[in-house]
UniProtKB/TrEMBL annotation:
Upper lineage: Bacteria, Pseudomonadati, Bacteroidota, Flavobacteriia, Flavobacteriales
UniProt KW keywords: ATP-binding, Kinase, Membrane, Nucleotide-binding, Phosphoprotein, Transferase, Transmembrane, Transmembrane helix, Two-component regulatory system
Domain Histidine kinase: 180-267
Protein name as it appears in the record: histidine kinase
Molecular function GO terms recorded: kinase activity
SUPFAM superfamilies reported for this sequence: ATPase domain of HSP90 chaperone/DNA topoisomerase II/histidine kinase
Top-level lineage group: Bacteria
ATP-binding keyword on record: yes
Catalytic reactions of this protein: ATP + protein L-histidine = ADP + protein N-phospho-L-histidine
Keyword Nucleotide-binding tagged: yes
Gene3D superfamilies linked: 1.20.5.1930, Histidine kinase-like ATPase, C-terminal domain
Membrane-spanning ranges: 17-40
EC number(s) on file: 2.7.13.3
Length: 271
C-alpha cells in the first residue's frame, strides 16, 4: 500500500511538472510570437514612414523645380515682351521710315522684310504671354490653350483645334491650372519639334467630378518604350503626380501621339 501511494504521488508530480513545463513553453512561445509580430509591425511602420518621407521629399523637389521653372519662364516672358519686343518694334519703325525714303520700284523689296518683322513681333508677344503664369491666370485656362494653338497654327500646322465638352468647372486651386497648361505646352512643344504633324487637337471633357483632357497629333509617332526615361515625359508625369492627376501617353510609329490626363476637379492637394 505504501509503495502504491508513493507511485501515485510520483505520477501526479510528474503530471503537474509536465503541465507546468507545457504552460511555460506555451507562454514563452506566445511571448516570442507577440514580440515577433510587434517587431514586424514596427519594422513595417518604419519602412512606410521612410517611403512617405521619400515621397514627400521627391514632391518637394519637384515642386521646387516647378516653381523655379515658372519663375524662369516668367522672366523670359518679360524679357521677350520688354526688350526683344521693343527691339523688333524699333527695327520695324526704322524700316518703315527707310521705306518712305526710297523710290517706288524699291519699296516692294522692303515688303517681305517688313512682313517678317511684323510676324516676328506678333509671335514674340504671343509667346511672352504663354510663358508668364500671371498672364495665363488672367486670361484663363481655356483661352490660354486657344491662344497657344492659334500661335502654333500660324507656325506650321494645318489645323489646331480646341473642343470643349460639358459645363465648365473652375479650378479650386488655380496653381493646378498652370501645371496642367504647362503639361499641354510640353506636349505641343514636342509635336512641333519631333512629330512632323499637320493637325493638333485638344479636348476638354468636363465630367461630374473630373476633367478628362485629350491632346493628339497626327505625326510620325514613336515607340513609347524608347522614350520612357526621356526628360519631357518624366517632366509631364512629375507635374501630373503633383496634382494627383493620371497621365497616360499612347503612341506607335506612324500613328501619332495621344496624351490623356484625368484630373479630379475637387482636388484638395495644396501645391
Amino acid at each position: 500500500m505504501v509503495q502504491t501511494s508513493e507511485r501515485i504521488a510520483s505520477t501526479a508530480s510528474e503530471r503537474y511538472l509536465l503541465i507546468y513545463m507545457i504552460a511555460v513553453l506555451a507562454i514563452v512561445t506566445t511571448l516570442v510570437i507577440i514580440f515577433f509580430v510587434v517587431f514586424l509591425k514596427r519594422k513595417n511602420k518604419l519602412l512606410l514612414d521612410k517611403i512617405k518621407q521619400q515621397q514627400a521629399f521627391e514632391e518637394e523637389i519637384t515642386l521646387a523645380q516647378t516653381e523655379t521653372q515658372e519663375q524662369t519662364l516668367k522672366n523670359i516672358g518679360w524679357e521677350l515682351h520688354d526688350n526683344v519686343g521693343q527691339l523688333l518694334s524699333f527695327a520695324n519703325m526704322q524700316l518703315s521710315i527707310l521705306k518712305m525714303q526710297v523710290t517706288d520700284d524699291l519699296k516692294d523689296k522692303f515688303q517681305d522684310t517688313t512682313d517678317a518683322l511684323r510676324e516676328s513681333l506678333s509671335e514674340v508677344r504671343a509667346l511672352s504671354k504663354t510663358l508668364n503664369n500671371e498672364v495665363v491666370l488672367n486670361i484663363g485656362f481655356e483661352k490660354s490653350i486657344t491662344n497657344e494653338l492659334n500661335r502654333l497654327k500660324k507656325m506650321k500646322f494645318t489645323s489646331a483645334k480646341l473642343k470643349i465638352i460639358g459645363d465648365k468647372v473652375g479650378f479650386t486651386n488655380r496653381k493646378h491650372e498652370i501645371i496642367i497648361f504647362r503639361i499641354l505646352q510640353e506636349f505641343l512643344s514636342n509635336s512641333v519639334k519631333y512629330s512632323e504633324a499637320k493637325n493638333l487637337s485638344i479636348i476638354l471633357d468636363y465630367k461630374s467630378d473630373t476633367l478628362l483632357i485629350t491632346a493628339q497629333d497626327d505625326g510620325v509617332g514613336f515607340n513609347i518604350g524608347d522614350i520612357e526615361n526621356g526628360s519631357g515625359l518624366i517632366n509631364m508625369k512629375s507635374r501630373a503626380d503633383l496634382i494627383n492627376a493620371e497621365l497616360d501617353i499612347v503612341s506607335k510609329p506612324n500613328n501619332g501621339v495621344v496624351l490623356t490626363l484625368n484630373y479630379p476637379l475637387f482636388n484638395s492637394v495644396n501645391v
